[in-house]
Structures are given as structure tokens and as C-alpha cells.
Specification:
Layout: H1 3-26, H2 38-46, H3 50-56, H4 58-61, H5 96-105, H6 110-118, H7 120-123, H8 137-148
This protein binds heme C.
């Protein structure tokens, strides 16, 4: 096959692969495959168990403080993380991967946190968070319910 035949095939591959990737990136915004609205997340997390989430947070507290104005450790302080702009803890030096993630998504919605905590390296390729992910979706809901308590509201 000469290059003149390969070109249309390459274009076809790009056409098919492009939208699939775009859908994955949009799945937290109420559009695309696996779309979910923030109201659905609010309901789901309201039914979860923040006390169980606090116990699960022990795996995180090696690297993260959770109290108001707590110190940055290996990872940034997580007070107010739900709804907080990505990569915004004062004085913490984030990776380029995480600052690009901020440009892409803005703030940490419940859905975005869930996606990151399920598999940090897959969600934000190049992140320095050395945590392999929380596999059980029910555990993640409990953890999110706990993270929601880290706020004055
Ligand atoms: C081994 C240390 C480590 C562990 C364990 C860890 N993290 Fe992290 N975390 C980090 C680092 C480092 C970053 C900064 C990542 C970057 O800049 O790419 C981070 C970033 C984050 C962010 C983004 C913060 C922001 O300001 O945008 C969230 C949310 C987060 N971690 C939550 C958690 C939760 C919840 C757990 C437990 C399930 C956890 N992390 C476990 C080290 C860790």
C-alpha cells in the first residue's frame, strides 16, 4: 500500500478515536458517555457514610492534612477540597500535569474527585500522587462524604 492509500485510513482512525476521547473527558459534565449530573452525585454522596469515609482517609493522611489551614505535607492540605479550584493550595508545588488539569476542569466536583481517586495516574497522567487508587465505588462515596465535611458550609 502506498502513502495515498494509507492517508484515508489514518483519517478514519482519527475520526473514530477523537470523539471517544472527548466523551471520556466530558463524562462529568452531563454530556457524553457515562454522563452524570452534579445533583445525582449530591444525592449519592448524601446517602453515603462519612464516618466510614473518615476511617478510609487514614490511607490519605500519610500525605494529606485535612484540617482548616493545615500544613502541606507530601501532598497539599485538603480542607474545602470539594468545589475548590484544582491545584490551589497556597505554597504547594504542583506538577505540570495537575496545573494542566486545572486548566481543563477548573474545580474539583464530586464526579471529578471520584474519577481522580479511583485511579490518579489514569485520570491525571503524570501526577505525583503515589497512590494506586480506591477501587470500590462504595468506599469512594463514603470517602467523598467525609471530604464534604471538610468545610464550614
Ligand atoms: C503518597 C502520598 C499520597 C497519598 C497516599 C495520597 N495523596 Fe493525594 N496527593 C499527593 C500529591 C503529591 C498530590 C499533588 C499531585 C500533583 O501535583 O500532581 C496530591 C493531590 C491530591 C489532590 C488534588 C489536590 C488539589 O489541591 O488540587 C486530591 C484531591 C488528593 N490528592 C486526594 C487524596 C485522597 C483523598 C487520598 C486518599 C485516598 C490521597 N490523596 C492519597 C500525595 C498523596
Amino acid at each position: 500500500m502506498g502513502p495515498s492509500r494509507l492517508l484515508p485510513i489514518a483519517c478514519l482512525v482519527l475520526l473514530v478515536a477523537g470523539p471517544v476521547h472527548a466523551q471520556a473527558a466530558q463524562s462529568c459534565d452531563g454530556r457524553g458517555a457515562g454522563a452524570d449530573t452534579s445533583e445525582a452525585w449530591q444525592r449519592r454522596v448524601a446517602a453515603a457514610d462519612p464516618a466510614a469515609g473518615e476511617r478510609l482517609f487514614r490511607a490519605c493522611s500519610v500525605c494529606h492534612s485535612a484540617e482548616f489551614a493545615g500544613p502541606n505535607m507530601v501532598g497539599p492540605n485538603l480542607w474545602g477540597i470539594v468545589g475548590r479550584p484544582v491545584a490551589s493550595a497556597e505554597g504547594f508545588s504542583y506538577t505540570t500535569a495537575m496545573t494542566l488539569h486545572r486548566d481543563a476542569i477548573g474545580e474539583w466536583s464530586l464526579c471529578r474527585l471520584d474519577s481522580y481517586l479511583a485511579n490518579p495516574q489514569a485520570d491525571v497522567p503524570g501526577t505525583s500522587m503515589m497512590y494506586r487508587g480506591m477501587v470500590d465505588p462504595a468506599d469512594r462515596l463514603d470517602l467523598l462524604a467525609y471530604l464534604m465535611t471538610l468545610s464550614v458550609d
